[in-house]
Amino acid sequence: MRANFFTFLLLFTLPALALAKPLDVSSLADVETSFRGDPDEQRDILLRKLRKQEQPNVILLPIESKWGEESATAATNAITSVLIKNKITLIDRSVSEQLRDELIAIEKGGISRGSSYDLGDYAIRGQVLTITSQTLFHPAKKDALMGMDFPDRCEVKINTSIQITLYNMNPLEVQKEFVLEDNYSNTYNNVRKCAEVNDAQDRLKAIGKNIEGRANKVANLFVSEGYIIGHRSYKKSGKNRHIFKTHLKKSTGGYKKGSKVKVIEKVERIDPVLGTTETQIKTVAEGKIIETTGDDYVWFELSKKQDPSKVFIGDSVDIKLKEKSNNPFEALTKSLPGFK
To answer: How far apart (Å, rounded) are the C-alpha atoms in residues 199 and 139?
Structure first.
């Protein structure tokens, strides 16, 4: 009965999905939209931000690890590989102890001291927090049902967690922080006991798998920060739907149809006593990335009941990259023309 239902679902749904077409933005008229604040001042601010976003100079500090130099090197190499694959420019700079101490102080305090550094646009600092290993011995056995003989074997299971922190360098402050966590396993056949197994290489592979398997999250450090540079609308089911153009380019990769977008209003306030600058963030609208033709820019459509009048040119957008799905039906539909 379930098989028949699934077959019906495929036959009914797939033709409709195959007919889905990208939206041609070149055929849509612009919607007049102002800046948030003084137009001349905000335009200059936006241009400066765009220049920084085009080719950010990123300093990757060597990842730290109390689990040994090899684990630190494995983590550093894996993050370097992910950033290069996502076309992030890494600059080779020696970082002073003063800057390292300042980064640690900011992490602990959670606020900027107001310091600025011209070494680069961003800095990434990381730490391997945990590497836990477990071994399970499985004696040889015959599986009559499967018609297979299994030898003596040792299963190695490793859990790793790695903290990643992104700093804005001017002014120096924490921009994003998160922990990557993953489970890794490997099986060694034809061993008499697990004591014969050396899991040193497995530990290094587990670190690499953790970072590379979450490449989207690491890349999201940079691709999530975009700015609105255009506004258009179109009719759908008799109603106006509003779409917004970001300065981000599809050709740089990492942007998926359906990824969630938040439009952010940032207000900077200066503490009159301490003289430090505090940035207050408020979400003013939400939407999702849509598939488009007509240009190379990333566009998103506001969700229903969202007010387009609250969105301004120059507003920041926070894009959460859509994670890979383990759903076989979703994977199948994404292979169809017009559905990505």
So the answer is: 19
